[in-house]
Design goal:
CATH architecture: Alpha-Beta Barrel
Strand content: 5-15%
Shape: globular
Radius of gyration: 19 Å
């Protein structure tokens, strides 16, 4: 098995370029069997996919990571075994103070749940830019980073203007987690340039549109009912497709991706992921884990191929894909910059 490519964040932490997303554990995707989730994580680690993306509000995700991490430490037979990386998020409520005690309490809660002495990475989210307490919170997070409780200080769904504001205050940001896919290419408009200039990596989600960017939906009737859009991901990204264009245009995109995939003997998902991995500021793509769900083996195989040097999209491949995506609506005009969908 070829080694999974890694990228180094500005604080020195090495992470896999394909990250295992644990949003599924939030409960919005069905019932969660925590014991089974812990057991199923092993297949990802055995494949070399050792980086997990989680959050304080993804149901029991932090506890599941902690249980698995403890299990790994007990069973690790070789000192050279690849360590895990756990990138969590802190998403404060909309009310209450942001003094040092509040911030530190949230960080130590995640440390306890994840059973670690420090957090590899904290990705901070804020709901309302009109409420400037996010600057106060980030100042305390930077202090906790200096104290050794946090290795990498990062953001989630911040726009370019706020990135500029935060970095201008001397706060070092390692990464920003944003939606980025063939459907949503807003990061390419403004954010990529800024991130490249300031050594900030983009960690992307929604890259497979919750599974809609796959052969499964090629040639199929448009899903509309809750029975068809049965997970939070499918519902969320179907709405994004509706804003981007329509189901007919989406079918044109899937057909083009299938043609490209056949030329590389891979899946549509691998092509869609590779396209985003090749973007200049992208450090990694977050692909949702299939914990307790059938098909995990193929899912892992697709993830490994998408970041393999064996898969190289040609200029012709990219031109064919872009010929379709350029026919879509302008999401910057329709929604705004990255993360604005959470604030409009």
């Amino acid at each position: 098995m070829a080694a999974v490519p890694t990228v180094k964040l500005s604080g020195g932490l090495k992470i896999c370029r394909v990250l295992n997303g644990l949003w599924q554990l939030s409960g919005a995707h069905g019932t969660v069997d925590e014991a089974q989730a812990v057991e199923d994580m092993q297949a990802y680690v055995d494949a070399g996919l050792t980086t997990f993306d989680l959050a304080d509000h993804y149901g029991p995700a932090e506890e599941v990571f902690g249980a698995f991490s403890r299990q790994q430490l007990k069973s690790r037979s070789s000192p050279g075994s690849a360590p895990l990386q756990g990138l969590t998020k802190w998403v404060p409520g909309r009310m209450g103070g942001m003094d040092r005690k509040v911030v530190e309490r949230a960080i130590r809660r995640s440390m306890t749940r994840m059973q670690v002495e420090s957090l590899d990475c904290v990705q901070f989210h804020w709901w309302d830019y009109r409420d400037k307490r996010y600057l106060e919170a980030l100042g305390h997070l930077a202090d906790l980073q200096q104290d050794g409780l946090i290795r990498e200080l990062s953001l989630t769904n911040f726009d370019t203007q706020r990135l500029e504001e935060i970095t201008s205050r001397g706060i070092r940001i390692s990464s920003n987690q944003v939606q980025y896919s063939l459907i949503d290419q807003r990061p390419a408009v403004r954010m990529e340039e800024f991130c490249l200039a300031h050594d900030i990596k983009l960690l992307t989600y929604g890259t497979l549109a919750g599974g809609l960017l796959s052969e499964r939906y090629l040639g199929k009737a448009e899903p509309k009912s809750r029975l068809e859009l049965y997970t939070a991901s499918l519902s969320k990204y179907k709405k994004m497709i509706d804003t981007w264009g329509d189901w007919r245009l989406f079918q044109d995109l899937l057909a083009t991706l299938e043609t490209v995939a056949k030329g590389h003997d891979c899946s549509v998902a691998s092509v869609a992921t590779r396209f985003i991995l090749d973007r200049p500021a992208v450090g990694g793509v977050i692909v949702g884990c299939r914990l307790g769900i059938a098909g995990a083996e193929q899912h892992i195989s697709d993830s490994l191929l998408s970041c393999s040097p064996e898969l190289r999209l040609t200029a012709e491949d990219s031109a064919a894909i872009q010929a379709v995506t350029q026919r879509s609506g302008d999401l910057m005009a329709l929604i705004g910059d990255c993360g604005d969908e959470y604030r409009n």
